[in-house]
Structure to design on (233 residues):
């Protein structure tokens, strides 16, 4: 192979790697956007907890008794796995791409924000949280209640039971704070992944990500706080 052919081959491989990386980043962005929308919808629905047991239980029953729930759960699992796998792969590839490790971390404007450096570990903690959360509310104690239309699962009682445990409340709040950090970066970076990247809009995009993350996190955290400190039922 002559020099020009070798150069052409190297260029092709580099282009292929770049395209693959862009595609992977867009998969991470799309799946992350889907998950971000889901947590907002999930949080909004869960706010019915402030209206009392019947509203909350009937809402939960309406969701779980709908046959489309299985399709929705499959879609969520697919998005979660795509997001976790592709993000982990990109992190690993970036790590392997460095031939040498830096003797000192960059400082000043060149320094990578700690929020970005810890995204992988945030994701691992959130993965553990999701697994525990699902195992509890999907396969936990089966309490039932009847509002005159037949027995349905009393999820409200299970929530109250869990959120009267100080350790559970603390773990839930910690996980939601981490989710807040993860979302604040994820929402803004998702927008940038699809080409909306201009100095004029960067601050607004960053603020939008922070506001979105805060709304989700505060909404979720308000629920254990209400149950633990204020609910007297």
């Amino acid at each position: 192979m002559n020099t020009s052919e070798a150069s052409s081959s190297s260029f092709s491989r580099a282009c292929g790697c770049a395209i693959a990386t862009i595609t992977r980043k867009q998969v991470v962005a799309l799946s992350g956007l889907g998950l971000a929308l889901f947590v907002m919808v999930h949080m909004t629905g869960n706010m019915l907890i402030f209206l009392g047991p019947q509203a909350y239980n009937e809402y939960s029953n309406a969701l779980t008794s709908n046959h489309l729930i299985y399709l929705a759960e499959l879609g969520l699992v697919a998005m979660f796995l795509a997001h976790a796998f592709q993000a982990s792969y990109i992190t690993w590839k970036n790590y392997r791409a460095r031939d040498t490790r830096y003797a000192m971390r960059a400082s000043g404007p060149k320094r990578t924000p700690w929020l970005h450096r810890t995204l992988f570990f945030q994701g691992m903690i959130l993965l553990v949280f999701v697994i525990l959360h699902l195992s509890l509310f999907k396969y936990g104690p089966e309490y039932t209640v009847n509002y005159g239309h037949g027995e349905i699962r009393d999820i409200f009682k299970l929530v109250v039971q869990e959120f009267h445990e100080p350790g559970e409340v603390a773990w839930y709040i910690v996980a939601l704070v981490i989710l807040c950090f993860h979302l604040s970066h994820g929402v803004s970076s998702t927008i940038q992944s699809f080409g909306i990247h201009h100095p004029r809009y960067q601050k607004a995009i960053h603020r939008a990500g922070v506001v979105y993350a805060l709304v989700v996190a505060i909404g979720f955290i308000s629920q254990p706080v209400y149950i633990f400190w204020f609910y007297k039922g």
